[in-house]
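Milestone M4 deliverable, item 7.
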Amino acid sequence: MNIEITRTARNYAAYLDGTRVGELVYARRGDRVIAVHTEVDPAAEGKGIGGALARALLDDARQGGLAVEAQCPFVASYLDRHPEYADPAAS
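Output delivered:
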């Protein structure tokens, strides 16, 4: 099982063995990145796709010095479960 994540100006897409199986939509507002919505194909659930998408967004935000606003319930839950991504500037 090989998960690949790609990024565009508006989303991260997840591919499992070459097939697109998930997406995390985001928006950029100044020095913030807003996680809007995460969706994973039901057939790919439980394989770490959502987590891989969240990590990609959070790692890129950290690298860029950006705060993360988690409007997406999945990303908010991921942040709760992974305190290493805690950002006091995020809301």
